[in-house]
Amino acid sequence: MNSIYFFEELWKQYTAKTPSAQKVKSLFEAKGDSVVNDHIAIRTFNDPRIDIDVIAQPFLKMGYEPKGEYNFEAKKLFARHFEHKSNPSAPKIFISQLLLEEFSIDLQACIRNILNEVDQSLYLSEDLILKGRVWSTPSFKTYQFLLEESEYAAWMYVNGFCSNHFTVDVNKLDSFNNLPGVNEFLKSNGFEINSSGGEIKGTKELLLQQSSILADTIEVDFEEGIEKITTCYYEFSYRYPQENGTLFTGFVANSADKIFESTDMKMQKTM
């Protein structure tokens, strides 16, 4: 698959669900900044038909290789990030998966039934991550059931396969040289920052700082009618140099744990 088309299509689908991302990008560009993407995040389940190994296939063919691994015990997630072998400017890929066996038998059965209803050949598609929700119209009752145990599972059920977020590489902005300045700029333009664990996740000592705006909400057609549900969000990262002088390229699990909450419907209600 053509990598340029693949990433352009990911961005196109992402901004269709996340108009705030395009608005933020335009704000930076209006200041004369070129917006470079640090990483793209993708969500899935650890069912062998659609787990990290499956979702990573098109990226591996593009020249990516696996790097760091991350465990999120509270949210029952595992993640791995990938970097391009020869192009350090290529966006990093961060793929997480829900560990289904750590949830109730009922949730496991629910997800298995959802995945079983799909033409199984779809899961073999090289462009699976571009296909969105491949199962039938969601049930709001099912969404609420999943939400009781896992916001991540409920989000995945409604949104399907897509980019969960893109990330502005703050190091490459000309108008800003730190994350606090970016956050203040965003707030002054009417955007709400995810404050779970503080507006800035991470520290200079950890070599990575991250922040994000809250996910957009869109009207979704459920079997029972239309409801507003969170979609995706825009993230911002600032990386610090390691002892050898090169910028840190990994991730910090505790920070990412709080970033995940940008899609939480509870955040939308309390902010």
Give the count of helical stretches. Answer: 10
N→C terminal distance? 41 Å
Strand order of the largest sheet: 2-3-4-1-5-9-6
Task: Please outline the major beta sheet.
Answer: 7 strands, mixed
The helix content is 25-40%
Structural class category = alpha+beta
Number of strands: 9
Strand content: 15-25%
| Rg calculated over all Cα atoms | 18 Å
Please, what is the average pLDDT? 94
Q: Any idea what the shape is?
A: globular
Task: Give me the strand/helix succession.
Answer: HHEHHEEEHHHEHEEEEHH
Describe the structure.
The protein is α+β, with helices and mostly antiparallel strands and 271 residues long. 33% of the residues lie in helices and 24% in strands. It has ten helices and nine strands. The chain has helices spanning 3-17, 19-30, 52-55, 57-61, 105-116, 140-149, 151-159, 179-188, 253-259, 265-270; strands spanning 37-45, 64-72, 77-84, 92-98, 163-169, 208-212, 217-222, 225-230, 233-239. It has a seven-stranded mixed beta sheet with strand order 2-3-4-1-5-9-6, sandwiched between helices. Strand 7 and strand 8 form a beta hairpin. Helix 1 crosses helix 2. The longest helix is centred in the first third of the chain and has 15 residues, at 3-17. The mean pLDDT is 94.
